[in-house]
Amino acid sequence: MIRFILSDLRRLWVGSLVVVLLVALATALGVCVVLQERALRLGSARAADKFDLVIGAGGSETQLVLSSVFLQPSPLPLMPGDVLGRLAADPRVDWAAPIGFGDSFSGYPIVGTTKIFAENLSGGFAEGKVFAREGEAVIGSAVRLSLGAEIKPMHGSAEEGGETHTELVYHVAGRLRPTGTAWDRAILVPIQAVWHIHGLGAEAHESEAGHAHEHEGAGHDGHKHHGEIDPDAVIDEKGAADAPGLPAILVKPKTIADAYKLRQEYRSGNTVAVFPAEVLTNLYATLGNAKQILVAVAAGAQALVAASLVLVTVIHIGQRRRQIGALRAFGAPRGAIFGIVWLEFFFLVAVGIGLGFSFGYAAALILSGMFSETSGIAMPVGFAHEDAGLAAVLLTFAAILAALPAVLAYRQSPAQALRA
């Protein structure tokens, strides 16, 4: 029986190949959707795990997390700078680091922050050291620059027609270890230097630190600068109480209980405090709805492929009536005819399903790689236990589908087949 099936497949190899590819492509679509959605969930969750508590001005919690944790460019409202001073003096806080956005270099976001954040972000340096002067910078592991390289900050981005700052040129002092987060593509500079570049200081509480926006009365170029900026100036991070307005502060509480207390305390008034994981849960709910739609589309494609395969197979069985009649005339039992047709069709569909899982996995790897390249977030693509259930469902459906042409062949009598 096996020899007969293999001989038949070799003789009809073009049609067999078409069946396999149709099944493979329909299966790959569904597998790719499942794997890519899971990779996005795992990658974003792991990226958010590094940040315990984020505090910002009142507004969208989702946008606060997307901007401060995932470094998605968007203007955030500013909270009073004295919030940083209170957090720095709070005995429940291990450390609190301000962050300021807005500038970029060669497509990499420049983020103003403090030394303690740079030292704790990745657990150490792959090379070099933390910045110690206003003209020094620390780069993420995915930033394609070398130690000592010059960084000329641009206000905004080149796509938005941003203008390059001429007041200060940073030099790379160190490179962080990989974190698997968007911060691997970030350039970290002293927040003090960011304030000075944008003409901000202790007297500028109505600042717009770290955002691509205009300063009133700043002249034609939209910037206001106070005196010369000394790249060799030593960083002074003790003046937290005199900080200008801030878009976000990343906080490391000492204990879980402290985290919840701080979250509750700073969720009133002019500030909002969020756990990034909580915000991601809401995003996952939306993502789950999108996944259901995509899975439904994939299921529809698979149903159409299944229907077309049944049609093609029924026509094929009709064209093979003489062959089936000859086998019956030579004494082949009905069960053998059923087994030959069923095994042949099931084999083709099973091979297509196997290739579909391979194609879907490869497509998910490519898409995740492209996303990781642009965002810096590691996207782990891999199969899980529930994927075995999906494969079992598809194979069961294939077995049922293969039974239809097999039953048609089983019911043909030798006399009718030979007269056809």
From TrEMBL:
Residues 206-221 have a biased composition (Basic and acidic residues). This is ABC transporter permease. Its main location: membrane. Residues 206-230 are annotated as: Disordered. It comes from Rhizobium leguminosarum bv. trifolii. It is a multi-pass membrane protein. The keyword Thylakoid does not apply. InterPro entries: ABC-4/HrtB_transporter (IPR051125), ABC3_permease_C (IPR003838). Pfam families: FtsX. Keywords: Cell membrane, Membrane, Transmembrane, Transmembrane helix. The chain crosses the membrane at residues 293-315, 336-368, 388-410.
